[in-house]
Amino acid sequence: MDVNIIFQIAAVGILVSVLNQVLIRAGREEQAMLTTLAGLVVVLFSVITHINNLFMAVRDLFKL
Amino acid sequence: MLATKIISFAIISVILIITLRRQLPEYAIILSIISCIFIFFMVLPQFNNIFIALESLTQNFNIHSNYILALIKIIGIAYICEFASQICIDAGEGAIAKKIELSGKILIISCSIPILNDLMELVLNLI
User: Fold this and answer.
1) In this structure, are residues B34 and A47 in contact, taking their beta carbons and an 8 Å threshold?
2) Residue B25 Cα, gap to closest chain A Cα (Å)
3) Angstrom distance (rounded) from CA A40 to CA A34
4) Of the candidates A46, A64, A15, which has an alpha carbon nearest to the alpha carbon of residue B111?
5) What is the mean pLDDT of each run of 10 residues along chain B (127 residues)?
6) How far is residue B110's CA from residue A64's CA, in Å, rounded to a whole number?
7) What was the pLDDT predicted at A2?
8) Tell me, what's the ipTM?
9) Which of B27, B40, B47 is facing A13, going by the closest CB pair?
10) pTM, full prediction
């Protein structure tokens, strides 16, 4: 359970938001939307692993 | 100290979430999910100790172990449903949160039906 994951996700979020603003100002809104979606997919991959860990731990702990 | 670790972690993640919320609300929700999961994992060993102590208590006092097992399951269901429901409320989906709570209540009732049966039998045997 590495605490740095929080900082990694926040860094990806800030990077994507900066890219979003730059692309919107440059007039390419569809690419901005695609960048947001791509960052979201990347972050979701690691989040799903952690949610899986949570459910495994809860199932073992509470003997569900 | 565990409490200060949890509190500092929570404050840092809250600040990061607020930073992201205005620009990209999806990342804010994902970050809040992850910080909830991490805080729970920090407290997990304490849960284990509590349950072990509870089990030793039941063995000393000859309480039927099925009851304590059902109780622990009910606590687990309640925790998971409250976790998901609060995340939905944070995301602005109050309706989904209420449905999650409703399903949690139904699951808890279905978990406790054997205990109710035993209670009824006990009462009928006494009469």
Assistant:
1) yes
2) 10
3) 10
4) A64
5) 90 93 90 92 87 84 81 90 94 95 95 90 91
6) 13
7) 78
8) 0.87
9) B27
10) 0.85
Tokens of A54: 């949570």
- Is B26 part of the contact surface with chain A (CB cutoff 8 Å)? yes
Q: Enumerate the residues of chain A whose CB falls inside 8 A of the CB of residue B82.
A: none
Do the beta carbons of residue B37 and residue A50 sit within 8 Å? yes
Secondary structure (3-state) at A18: helix
How far apart, in whole angstroms, are the C-alpha atoms of residue B122 and residue B101?
A: 31
Q: A11: nearest CA in chain B?
A: B16
Q: How far apart are CA B82 and CA B78, in angstroms?
A: 6
**Is A3 close to B51, i.e. CB distance below 8 A?**
no
- The secondary structure of residue A27, as a DSSP letter, is T
Asked if B48 is an interface residue toward chain A (Cβ–Cβ < 8 A), one would say yes
Token digits of residue B68: 């304590």
- Please name the member of A10, A20, A55 whose beta carbon is closest to the beta carbon of B16: A10
> What confidence tier does A48 reach under pLDDT thresholds 50, 70, 90?
very high
Given a contact cutoff of 8 angstroms between Cβ atoms, the answer to whether A25 and B11 are in contact is no
